[in-house]
Amino acid sequence: MSGPPARVYIVDDDPLLRDGVTQWLGDAGYQARSFPSGEAILAAYPQLSPGCIIADMLMPSMSGLELQRRLITAGCHWPVIMLTGHATRPVLTRAMEAGIVAFLEKPVREAELLAAVMRGHAHLLGKAEMVPDPDLVRRLARLTGRERQVLGFVLQKKLNKQIAAILGIGETTVKGYRRALMKKLGAHNTTELVVLAIRAGLPVAPAAPQS
């Protein structure tokens, strides 16, 4: 990422989820800070710099939607990403009507969360859409057809041996393609590779069901 790290605030009563999301975002280059409740972030809000908020829909003392309403009342219009384990249609409708920029079901996937954060950051900067990075698009164009295939399967979180079986090639060959495409894109690890691919405008397909 260019410039100072974008700020993201995680609000969830589950400490394992808070720590996990904070780790993901830190690895991706974001400045992440977590809060155990809506009350905690509301108390800290006057001292916080603008950022994207990730909030659990269902928390014991204050729901994610109630937190978002109170933030708006306080004059805060930062983008909010909502997480929930119960994505019923009425809940989804209420969330979108409240101005939530993204709505993700638990267990949330890392790539989907990072894509949502990028979209939220685009809103924070006053952009309706995140425009693909032209430099990354050019790097993608330098990939061979086979490297693009391997990248597509990596974005589906398939293992090297699974990719090898699908393509009918050796696992060592897959590793070679993977190293080559990561070098061309400038990625040092899989998380960074996923982030770069999303920034280039590639869709991240849901993982295929295991047979």
Which descriptors would you attach to this protein?
211 residues; alpha/beta; Rossmann fold; Arc Repressor Mutant, subunit A; five-stranded parallel sheet; 10 helices; 11% strand
Strand portion: 5-15%
| Total domains | 2
| Unreliable residue stretches | 206-211
Order of helices and strands: EHEHEHEHEHHHHHH
CATH topology of the largest domain: Rossmann fold
In CATH terms, what is the architecture of the largest domain? 3-Layer(aba) Sandwich
Evaluate the radius of gyration.
Answer: 19 Å
Q: Taking all residues together, what is the mean pLDDT?
A: 83
Describe the structure.
The protein is an alpha/beta fold. It has helices at residues 15-27, 38-44, 64-73, 89-97, 110-124, 134-141, 145-155, 160-167, 171-185, 190-199; strands at residues 7-11, 31-35, 52-56, 80-84, 102-105. Strands 2-1-3-4-5 form a 5-stranded parallel sheet, sandwiched between helices. Strand 4 (80-84), helix 4 (89-97) and strand 5 form a beta-alpha-beta unit. It is elongated.
How would you summarize the topology of this molecule?
Blueprint: E1 7-11, H1 15-27, E2 31-35, H2 38-44, E3 52-56, H3 64-73, E4 80-84, H4 89-97, E5 102-105, H5 110-124, H6 134-141, H7 145-155, H8 160-167, H9 171-185, H10 190-199
Parallel strand pairs: 1-2, 1-3, 3-4, 4-5
Helix pairs in contact: 5-10, 7-9, 8-9
Quick summary:
The chain has helices at 15-27, 38-44, 64-73, 89-97, 110-124, 134-141, 145-155, 160-167, 171-185, 190-199; strands spanning 7-11, 31-35, 52-56, 80-84, 102-105.
